[in-house]
């Protein structure tokens, strides 16, 4: 017997909160992307747990799509970071204030 | 407490601590290494929850491909240490900590105030063959869409990452 589903849910909430805190507070673009990755991973954990609880494979199938989206997002995100670094010479999100009045 | 539940709690603690260490590092490189530990822990959790194929994909895609991509980019661009003062950092962390605390306490209250007695999950495993058959029978269209999304991401990354060289038309205009 494994733990109840609520404990899996609690762990996923903790991981999601850590990822969200990372994405909100850090000013380094790479750390912001890492926060987004942690959040996607926590969502995947919930799907796998729910798939086991209701004995349906839909949850596991959805995690594959989450992986796909994470891979696509990180590829485009890192390309954007390289582009911005080449263009402005910095990866600090606070320095992109060209539109500031 | 059975063997499985003890294993789950150990893995949960390891994953949580590794993630916490990852998000508080000043060096992005150290964060990546901690994050690899965290993803390995999550992969084992997936295996424990009856998804061996997803555990494999987690190690290959997340801990392998995505983290190596991050490492490449970190080594490619030079990151200047941020000149942010400690006070400003604390001012940024405070709202995040408060909001995360609220979310976590609400989740904990919801879990522990649940009137139904918690039913432990029964172990079950869905092998790769079973999952693949299910995926291509029920979700063949989303699979096609996912592959299309990957193609678009590839084209977008190539477009954003191209060099600074001028296009042939502009070169010809400049030459005479």
The profile of the biggest β sheet of chain B is: none
CATH topological fold name of the domain at 1-78 in chain B: Four Helix Bundle (Hemerythrin (Met), subunit A)
- The CATH topology of the domain at 29-90 in chain A, please? Helix Hairpins
Span between termini of chain A: 60 Å
The tally of strands of chain B reads 0
Query: If you average the pLDDT of chain B, what whole number results?
Result: 83
Radius of gyration of chain B: 23 Å
Regions of chain B with pLDDT < 50 over 5+ consecutive residues? none
Helix percent band of chain B: over 70%
Biggest sheet descriptor of chain A: none
Distance, first to last CA of chain B = 82 Å
Question: How many DSSP helices of chain B?
Answer: 7
Low-confidence stretches of chain A: none
What does this structure look like?
The complex is a heterodimer of chains A (101) and B (176). In chain A, 76% of the residues lie in helices and 0% in strands. By secondary structure, chain A is mostly helical. The termini of chain A are far apart. With 176 residues, chain B is mostly helical. Among the domains of chain B are: 1-78, NADH-ubiquinone/plastoquinone oxidoreductase chain 6, subunit NuoJ (Four Helix Bundle (Hemerythrin (Met), subunit A)); 126-160. Chain B has seven helices and no strands. Chain B has helices spanning 3-24, 28-48, 52-76, 86-112, 128-138, 140-160, 168-174. The chains are: A mainly alpha (101), B mainly alpha (176). Chains A and B meet through helix 1, helix 2 and helix 3 of A and helix 1, helix 2, helix 3, helix 4 and helix 5 of B.
């Amino acid at each position: 017997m494994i733990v109840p589903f609520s404990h899996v849910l609690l762990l996923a909430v903790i991981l999601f909160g850590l990822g969200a805190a990372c994405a909100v507070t850090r000013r380094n673009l790479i750390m912001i992307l890492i926060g987004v990755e942690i959040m996607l991973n926590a969502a995947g954990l919930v799907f796998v747990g729910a798939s086991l609880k209701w004995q349906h494979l839909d949850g596991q199938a959805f995690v594959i799509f989450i992986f796909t989206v994470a891979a696509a997002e990180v590829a485009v995100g890192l390309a954007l970071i390289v582009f911005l670094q080449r263009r402005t010479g910095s990866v600090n999100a606070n320095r992109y204030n060209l539109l500031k009045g | 407490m059975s063997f499985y539940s003890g294993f789950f709690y150990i893995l949960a603690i390891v994953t949580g601590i590794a993630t916490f260490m990852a998000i508080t590092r000043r060096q992005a490189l150290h964060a990546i290494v901690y994050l690899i530990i965290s993803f390995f822990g999550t992969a084992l959790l997936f295996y424990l929850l009856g998804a061996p194929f997803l555990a494999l994909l987690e190690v290959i895609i997340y801990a392998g491909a995505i983290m190596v991509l991050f490492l490449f980019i970190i080594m490619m661009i030079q990151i200047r240490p941020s000149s942010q003062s400690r006070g400003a950092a604390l001012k940024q962390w405070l709202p995040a900590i408060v909001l995360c605390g609220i979310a976590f306490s609400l989740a904990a209250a919801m879990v522990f105030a649940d009137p139904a007695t918690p039913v432990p999950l029964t172990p079950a495993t869905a092998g790769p063959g079973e999952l693949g058959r299910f995926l291509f029978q029920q979700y063949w269209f989303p699979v096609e869409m996912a592959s299309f999304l990957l193609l678009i991401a590839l084209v977008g990354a190539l477009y954003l990452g191209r060099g600074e060289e001028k296009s042939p038309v502009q070169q010809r205009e400049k030459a005479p």
